[in-house]
Amino acid sequence: MSISTNADSHAERLVVCRACDWVVTLPVRAPGQAARCPRCRHHLTEAAQRDAQRPLAWGIATLVTLGLVFCFSFLSFSAYGVGHVMAFGDTLHALIADDYAELAVILLAFTALFPGLYLAALIYLCSAVQLGRTLPGQVVIARALRPIEPWMMSDVFIVGVLVALIKIISLASIHIHTGFVAFCLFSVLMLRTVTLIDWTSLWDVLAPRGSLPTKIRPGATGRAQGLVACHGCDTPFMADRGPCCPRCGKRHVLHRVNRIQLTWALLITATLAYIPANVYPVLSTIQLGNAEPQTIAGGVMHLLHAGDWPIALVIFVASIVVPISKIVALAWLCLAARRPRARASLSRTRLFHITEKIGRWSMIDVFVVATLTTLVQAGSLMSIAPGPGAVAFALVVILTMIAAHTFDTRLLWSAHTHTFGVSTDPSPSEISHSA
Ligand SMILES: [Zn+2]
Ligand SMILES: [Zn+2]
């Protein structure tokens, strides 16, 4: 069944940009074309797809590949005549055995559990479209899927594994097994599958849009017209119709001013957690009976002294530059939201989107610790154990990601006029081509 159901009616193609609250008319997209907000450049839709077959096929292939990761050995190492073969699932046992179950949960959830659930749900939704039937819970499942996307970190994990291997390659002999190759393949397929989902068209098939009053026009803010953009299904609806989206049931508020206090609270907690993350060791290396604890900064210095400056740079950027920049940028945006300036709205929104996108890459160091802990297991001859700094650092990354999620970029645009005819902002949406 086709999912390209772009409605022809002008009213049925109205959308409200969730980044800047501008009402725009969604153009009829040809396959491969995406639409962006003319005011803030935020993506209003993904690239249009011809049908639900492609994401269904890619989703099944990706899920099968993820299953293969658990069927084969992942990596092996040998040092001082002692060897150890690691399976992907062993990370769970190794981290729990070291009393770091929280790291095991983070690793498994972000690299396998969330992607697996996402793929299974996607296959379910695409099957509903292909069969032309309404399946139980399809609206609730569709609404729950998109918030999971930033938390799927298979690509970050691969970089973490590579960094871990380079860190110990001079101390031990390392071999890559089929499980790791399958994981790399899974990560590539996962990235491709996500780009093949056209949520706008998928929602048009899964649940019909509610009608809007004819007085609603593009070229003004949704707030000025009593219109709300649903963050669950991206459909605009009248705020006076109640607190829940009539299409997907998600609760909403018009302008979440109070949430800025929540963003502040999360940022302050992340800043506090960043102190133990740097003071306590993130891992301890035991070599020939001698334990050597290592902090984040100590690890960077150790790599620099060993001449591995590219890896030192990766860890320095991911574990020090990115978290600090993210906390500072979000704090500044929270302050800026109180004093919105029309001229600065676009640059501030761009800063937010950059901050939001790079935050997940800070998880590299946590994945490095998890990989080394599981792989390097040769007792007192040579083994690596996680340190409390790793848990605190994972907490920093998670808290800053949630803080970014709670920040409402519409506050950055509140200095603009809300009414028709005065603003110089453009109203029709823009088309861009995507792969
Ligand atoms: Zn916008
Ligand atoms: Zn909705």
TrEMBL record:
Subcellular location: Cell inner membrane
Record-given protein name: Paraquat-inducible protein A
A Pfam family annotated for this UniProt entry: PqiA
Superkingdom of the source species: Bacteria
Keywords attached to this entry: Cell inner membrane, Cell membrane, Membrane, Transmembrane, Transmembrane helix
Membrane topology: Multi-pass membrane protein
Family: Belongs to the PqiA family.
InterPro entries, per database record: PqiA-like, PqiA-like_proteobact, PqiA-PqiB_transport
Membrane-spanning intervals of the chain: 56-83, 103-125, 156-174, 260-277, 311-337, 358-378, 384-404
One GO cellular component, as annotated: plasma membrane
